[in-house]
């Protein structure tokens, strides 16, 4: 069996999905997702210009060797662009493997370990009342777990991922062009306000709702430790990215002062970046994505390593992921003995479902993986021709005096 060709499509309904389709001499094809938010044309070019020409003629069934060829074969390797491109190829090869075996990918990994995978949705508000309305709406939709982000008095619209005005939706990506808008941040105001807001939500919604919160890398280690201690009464399911991801030692201080569960890893691109945090048991959830962590092949290894250290999965599932990588993650979620939760923001719009038909389904806050062979998601190429790449950016963050801060 041979890979004969591969095509890359960039675009989608309100998103620039990077979709890879690998074709074979036996008519079976595989799909992959290389979407890298606001940098979409780069993994697409890496695939078209470098990787696709190199894998044509290879046997697609040898997904492990092809992954090693891509990663170890590159002297300058890794980084989010390359890993997203390897990830897309790897997903497509697992899709092909499943289709030729007549089995869904989760069966190739070890079968189903659960009936449905717990997912969480996002709720955000310009202030606490607005946020409470948004949480109530998610519960109404059936979600049992919700990530909550709230505007801070004195800096409206400036908490991470919150709308500027009541009832408005907040979109991280602004398709107005490549020059980012500026949001302001003040850690002092955040630290004074947010613990009380989270505790208030816990009181309002009761003990059963799983509440998650994302700090988006904005606190210093001492502040993060103090914040983690202050939010303990809110009984969070997790506290996400409390400190900048580059400094893994920062978490030690937080661990010494709090038992709040910590989730990290959405910006990690390899097993090596997860290795220390997992082995030293400094985190409770690992947040990698099958796209920019390089595909199912390496993420399966991360899951196994995590399982040895009581770390559960909580894969990244921001809206930038296409239904193809969400399907790949759904198969891992169905199998992973140490599954925790899945961020879930992708399927559901009619346009998206039409572009990527599948019978994966969300019900009662759980994701039910499809039993169709392979990844169980298809791609309508004719429909894809309607969508074009739209340059976008997410905001940058500055302190009130103009100093740059972590987005
Ligand atoms: C999340 C993430 C995202 C990122 C986005 C950046 O937890 O969902 O923090 O929302 O901000 O993916 O491009
Ligand atoms: Mg996050």
From TrEMBL:
BP terms from Gene Ontology: amino acid catabolic process; carbohydrate catabolic process
Q: Which organism is it from?
A: Mangrovicoccus algicola
In terms of SMART domains, this protein maps to: MR_MLE
Could you tell me what this protein is called? D-galactonate dehydratase family protein
Report the SUPFAM superfamilies cross-referenced here.
Enolase C-terminal domain-like, Enolase N-terminal domain-like
The organism sits in which domain of life? Bacteria
Molecular function as annotated in GO: magnesium ion binding; mannonate dehydratase activity
Instruction: Show where the Mandelate racemase/muconate lactonizing enzyme C-terminal domain sits.
Output: 128-261
Biological classification of the source: Bacteria, Pseudomonadati, Pseudomonadota, Alphaproteobacteria, Rhodobacterales
The cross-references to PANTHER family, in alphabetical order and at most eight, read: D-GALACTONATE DEHYDRATASE-RELATED (PTHR48080), STARVATION-SENSING PROTEIN RSPA (PTHR48080:SF6)
Member of which family? Belongs to the mandelate racemase/muconate lactonizing enzyme family. GalD subfamily.
């Amino acid at each position: 069996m041979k890979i004969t060709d591969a095509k890359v499509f960039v675009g989608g309904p309100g998103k620039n999905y990077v979709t890879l389709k690998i074709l074979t001499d036996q008519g079976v094809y595989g799909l992959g997702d290389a979407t890298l938010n606001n940098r979409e044309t780069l993994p697409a070019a890496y695939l078209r210009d470098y990787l696709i020409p190199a894998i044509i003629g290879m046997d697609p069934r040898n997904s492990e060797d092809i992954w090693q060829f891509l990663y170890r074969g590159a002297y300058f390797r890794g980084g989010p662009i390359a890993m997203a491109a390897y990830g897309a190829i790897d997903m497509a090869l697992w899709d092909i493997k499943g289709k030729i075996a007549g089995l869904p990918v989760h069966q190739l990994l070890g079968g189903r370990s659960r009936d449905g995978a717990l997912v969480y949705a996002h709720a955000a508000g310009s202030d606490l009342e607005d946020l409470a309305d948004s949480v109530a709406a998610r519960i109404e939709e059936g979600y049992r777990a919700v990530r909550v982000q709230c505007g801070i008095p004195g800096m409206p619209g400036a908490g991470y991922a919150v709308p500027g005005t009541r009832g408005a939706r907040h979109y991280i990506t602004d398709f107005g062009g490549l020059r980012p808008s500026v949001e302001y941040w003040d850690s002092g105001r955040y630290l004074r306000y947010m613990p009380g807001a989270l505790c208030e939500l816990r009181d309002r919604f009761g003990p059963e709702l799983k509440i998650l919160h994302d700090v988006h890398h904005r606190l210093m280690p001492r502040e993060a430790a103090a914040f983690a201690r202050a939010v303990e009464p809110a009984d969070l399911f997790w506290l996400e990215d409390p400190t900048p991801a580059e400094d893994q030692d920062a978490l030690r201080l937080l661990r010494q002062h709090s038992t709040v569960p910590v989730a990290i890893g959405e910006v990690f691109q390899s097993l090596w970046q997860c290795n220390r945090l997992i082995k030293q048991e400094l985190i409770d959830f690992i947040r990698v994505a099958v796209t920019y962590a390089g595909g199912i092949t390496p993420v399966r290894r991360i899951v196994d390593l995590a399982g040895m250290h009581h770390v559960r999965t909580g894969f990244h599932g921001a809206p930038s992921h296409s239904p193809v990588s969400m399907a790949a993650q759904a198969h891992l979620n169905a199998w992973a003995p140490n599954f925790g939760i899945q961020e879930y923001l992708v399927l559901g719009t009619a346009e998206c479902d039409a572009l990527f038909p599948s019978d994966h389904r969300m019900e009662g806050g759980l994701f039910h993986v499809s039993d169709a062979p392979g990844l169980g998601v298809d791609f309508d190429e004719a429909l894809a021709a309607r969508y074009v790449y739209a340059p976008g950016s997410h905001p940058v963050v500055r302190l009130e005096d103009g100093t740059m801060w972590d987005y």
